[in-house]
Amino acid sequence: MELAHYSDFAVRLVNTEEPVRSKDSLTSVEVVRDLFGEASQMARRVTEADLPRFRAVRSRLRAVFTLADEGDHTGAVDLLNSLLLEFPVSPQISGHDILDENGRPRWHMHLADHSSNATTGYAAICAMGLAFHLTEFGADRLGLCQAPPCRNAYLDTSTNRSRRYCSDRCATRANVAAYRARKRLEADRSEPTGLSAETSQESLTPGDR
Questions:
Q1: Gene3D superfamilies recorded for this chain (predicted)?
Q2: What is the largest CA-CA distance in the chain?
Q3: What is the rounded distance in angstroms from the CA atom of residue 88 to the CA atom of residue 209?
Q4: Distance (Å, whole) CA 193 – CA 173
Q5: What does the radius of gyration of the chain's CA atoms come to, in whole angstroms?
Q6: From start to end of 67-158, where are the E strands?
Q7: pTM here?
């Protein structure tokens, strides 16, 4: 389903915050505009008033990913449905700038923007994109990075549903940490845990022998 690619908008927004590190990069109009990517027309409508509204939508989207990651798929769907109701979309057929080999428009579904402000438009795209992604691939395809302290959101598109990290960097960091932990455990197990027989005998008093 072509509309599933709109789910990337949700990932971009959620990952502007790192809760564990208490970091938030959603601090300016320019940062918000960058989230729109190629949707430059919608981005031009962003104002300072959109900053708190974007943060509020971000919290709700992160909750969707959190519940899905924890296995509460019904809860994730309920939250996503509430977003869909609050931020409805207007789908339409489009063929702009996309031509097939014969020079004819390659028709596809597109989300039209008739929103009252930038936040409403962006939230609608996020909700619809996640909805299509979830219904096509499953709620277990929405996850949060398992490499502490990162908790970035990601969309699992692996063939065997095995993704656990948001990026190759986090995967490498987690593998290195696991390797070092195994080495420490092996070292602890190889160390003497008690006194040798000779040492034990030497430590006894004459009356105990």
A1: Jann2411-like domain (1.10.3300.10)
A2: 103
A3: 87
A4: 32
A5: 26
A6: 90-94, 108-112, 142-144, 153-155
A7: 0.78
Q: Residue 151: which residues within 8 A CB-CB, separation 6 or more?
A: 18, 19, 20, 144, 145
Amino acid 113: pLDDT: 64
Give the whole-angstrom CA distance, residue 53 versus residue 120: 9
Burial class (CB in 10 A: 0-12, 13-18, 19+), 68: buried
Is the confidence at residue 87, as pLDDT, over 50? Answer: yes
Chain segment 120-147, per-residue pLDDT in tens: 999 999 999 999 999 999 999 999 999 9
Phi, psi of 203 (to 5 degrees): -80, -10
Angle at 122 between CA 45 and CA 70, to 5 degrees: 155
Residue 13 CB partners (closer than 8 Å, separation 6+): 26, 35, 54, 57, 58, 61, 122, 126
Q: What is the pLDDT of residues 103-120, one digit of tens each?
A: 788 787 767 666 788 999
Work out the pLDDT band at 23, boundaries 50, 70, 90: very high
Q: How far is CA 105 from CA 3, 98, 102, in A?
A: 18, 6, 9
Tokens read off for 29: 């109009």
